[in-house]
Amino acid sequence: TYGNSTYVAVGQSGKILTSSDGTSWDNRSSGTTSNLIGITYGNSTYVAVGSSGKIITSSDGTSWDNRSSGTTSSLIGVTYGNSKFLTMTGSMDNGTNSIATVLTSSNGTSWTSSSATCSTCDNNTVSINDVTYGNSTFVAVGQSGRILTSSNGTSWTTRTSGTTSNLVGVTYGNSKFLTMTSSMDN
Fold first, then answer.
1. Which of 61, 79, 122, 184 is 20 to 30 A away from residue 2, measured at CA?
2. Nearest Cα residue to 79 out of 42, 37, 109
3. What is residue 185's predicted lDDT score, i.e. its pLDDT?
């Protein structure tokens, strides 16, 4: 992610790298050995999420603080939009078998948990891989080409992607959402 004139990348075993130019990178101590899966910047705060409900925050990308998520489930991507941070657990259906947990925070410090379902999904559990925000819409992507959208982060609607391949990431920029599958060749 990029914010406050700094690029920040996260990874396995609590790995955090920062860069001012995107070329030279510095290792930073995250204070955790949990795998970090997603990071975003908003409201003058970096928020990283990961395995076992791990949430850490930083104002500068260098010093990191642990936050209580209230869950031990792994958290997939994190995004900032509509004046709040949003992250979620990695599966959802119409509420028959699996209700996703969505965590929201206005400041990255205090998190509120709520249940989320997809009323237009069937009762098969959908694994979610990433989430983003843009154009007043939260978008989550996952297995079998699943795309879900929400205006509030708790009520989700399935959309047609045109693929059955797993979608691994999603972002918003230049007035468009972009997602891609996990493999590519020439």
1. 184
2. 42
3. 64
